[in-house]
Amino acid sequence: MLQVALAQVRLNARRFIAVAVAVTIAVGFLTATLIINSSSKASLTQSVGQSFRNADLVVSANWDEVAESFPVLDDRIADLARNTDGVADAYAVRDASVSVRDGNGTLLCAAVEHPG
Fold it and tell me: What DSSP designation does 114 have?
């Protein structure tokens, strides 16, 4: 059995080399893709979480199905949080976003502004 396999390798050496090169390229591509994905995910997590790293609590609004928008969490809500016993500080982060969708609901464009 081993002799037959070795004879096939000798007869079709170029074919086996081509397959080995193809597999090596595929493994390298997959490895690079996984490394880049992991790196970008870690970078995104760090950059998004950077502003909240010292926060004990983050309050955000959920999508309101009836109004089809996010409720506004304004300075009044931040004042309520500031005046709560045990709260050292509170501030409101304001942002605005616009999305454009086609008739099928496919997102065409989105813009988010985080005023400083």
Answer: -
CB-based contact 99:109 (threshold 8 Å): yes
pLDDT score recorded for residue 33: 95
How far apart CA 54 and CA 95 sit, in angstroms, is 20
**Separation CA 83–CA 104 (nearest Å):** 46
Q: Extract the tokens encoding 18.
A: 């081509």
Low-confidence ranges of the chain (pLDDT < 50): none
Rg (C-alpha) for the chain, rounded Å, is 28
Residues 115 and 95: beta-carbon distance below 8 Å: yes
CA dist 89 to 49, 60, 67, Å?
18, 16, 31
Query: Tokens 């493994």 label which residue?
Result: 27
Per-residue confidence (pLDDT) for residue 1, from 0 to 100 = 85
Start-to-end CA distance of the chain, whole Å, equals: 73
**Whole-prediction pTM value?**
0.43
Question: Which tokens is 50 given?
Answer: 């950077």
CA 75, chain centre distance (Å): 30
